[in-house]
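The passage that follows is intended for readers who have already worked through the single-chain material. We present the inputs for a multi-component assembly, then the predicted structure in tokenized form, and finally a short commentary. You are encouraged to pause after the input and sketch how you expect the pieces to fit together before reading on.
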Amino acid sequence: MSDITASTPTLHGGSPARSAPITAVGPIAWVRANLFSGWLSTAVTLVLGYLIVRAVMGFVDWAFVNAIWSVPVNGNGVAQTQACRELHGTGACWAVVTEKHRFMLFGTYPFEQHWRPALVCLLFVALYIVSSMRSFWNWRLIPIWAGTLTAIGILMWGGVLGLPYVPQERWGGLPITLILATFGLAFAFPLSILVALGRRSNLPAIKALCVLYVELIRGVPLISLLFMASVMFPLFLPEGMNIDKLLRAQIAIILFAGAYLAEVVRAGLQSLPKGQYEAADAMGLSYWQKTGLIILPQALRTVIPPLVNTFIGFFKDTSLVLIIGIFDLLTAGKTAIVEPSWQGFGVEVYVFVGLIYLVFCFAMSKYSQGLEAELNRHRRR
Amino acid sequence: MSAALDTQGHIASAARTDAPPAIVLDKVNKWFGALHVLRDVDLQVALGERVVVCGPSGSGKSTMIRCINRLETHQEGKILVDGIELSDDLRSLDAIRREVGMVFQSFNLFPHLTILENCTLAPIWVRKMPKKDAEELAMEYLTRVRIPEQAKKYPGQLSGGQQQRVAIARALCMKPKIMLFDEPTSALDPEMIKEVLDTMVMLAGTGMTMIVVTHEMGFARQVADRVVFMDRGEVVEVGTPEQVFNDPKTDRLKMFLSQILRGH
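Having made your guess, compare it with the prediction:
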């Protein structure tokens, strides 16, 4: 509460405060306090510093200095990777990425139509950016999402507006990952809120249903859910009816993510003191007014870190769809190096694919930190 | 709003015996599990009457007033508020909660909303008042509790006494006919108790029907038309402040008063 600054004289009229000596503030003080505070910390600093410099230099050598960025292609379209093999691992063969990046990003989607999945990826990124802006957090988001997702569907399938039809079996790469993650979380999050509320409901049937759902889904590995969705589920459908494989995997992911997120949301609901519910009740707010205006805004703010943690986890877990033969980004990367001339260059491919995942996950993480700080303004004094 | 004071500094009673009673409790019984917390509680509160409820902790006084707006449910007996009987019917519950304001011991302001938003929330969503009107009304009540300048702040930035005054303003914004106070000063530092009690005295002067659970005997003497003494879930004595404090009839009340006085 007090506002004592460096230049304020002391309360009792004594000598004015002097500025701190250079050894107590500023970068020099920081280095002394954190890196060289004693002989042990000095030794640790020197050893670790040496190791870090060695590792960074080694990586720079491998990734940039000795790297090969392109290789010649012979008349049959087969890449001549001799130069890469002669490096014996001392340098990266980025040629594999240069040559194969379109396959990794878009899978087996018809080559001359690649602009369509590329545009889809851009649309997704634009959708994320718009959705992250708080000035759009109102009814406008609903038409924006509906419009963008329709456009994405049209672009991917085609068959209208002069776009050739592309069956879902030929989709692959980054659009698949983004579709699974975006639809997955966009549906799983509202579902999880309903389930978390249902688990705290006074109505025994609703409560039992929600408990059963969460415990059943959480108790089973995602992989087995995916298998069930791809193998068992069609057996229960009536003759002649068939649901798209991607959609089945999508539903499995939504159900799985929903169960996990529900527990995170429930933790937030439980963190609220009983008085908040009572005050809302005493004012005559209805259940949904109380939940929407008082309870959820507070509960969700509290659980932003674990919520985003789960979001990031599921973004990466979409790669598990490879086991039921769906071609997501990671599977496409893996398939790209099946070709004999490119075998053995897995590291470069995985670094590239990993970098794409990292960009999305890091953006989510950074955004959530900013959001947390902004939404919890009221906690500051 | 100058409160009419009689010779003892007591605010003149506004109780209207001609009108039907604002609150009727008729043989109300309540159990928490096997624990019998309210035993045959009978109480009638007239429109405009101010009742102070006191008693040792665990005597059921908070439970009783929480039954009046159904934050707790009673198992036996009848409770009528403003002529409407409390039941499981949600519509009658909504109607009652609209007419009954409540102030809690721990304030229970909504920390994620500003002071102004705290006050306008229920008028906008429950009374369906236009936002602008609700804000004007809220500023009027915030002025009455003498904190209009804090309207844009969050509850966490205010002192306890200020928060409790906001809580009173928030309840008043619903224009309730009845106000319930559940130990409104018990969670406050001593120097803040007076500002909250002053606000409540001001409110008493407007003729509001009030039921106040409190141990503040000075407040009870100044504003109460009647004092209810409860012990172990029963209403033991009811009377004017003079009767109850100066001339206790039962040993239980005598003991309670001696403990209260020793504590002060």
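Commentary: DSSP finds 15 helices and no strands in chain A. Residues 312 and 361 of chain A are 6 Å apart (CA to CA). How closely did your sketch match?
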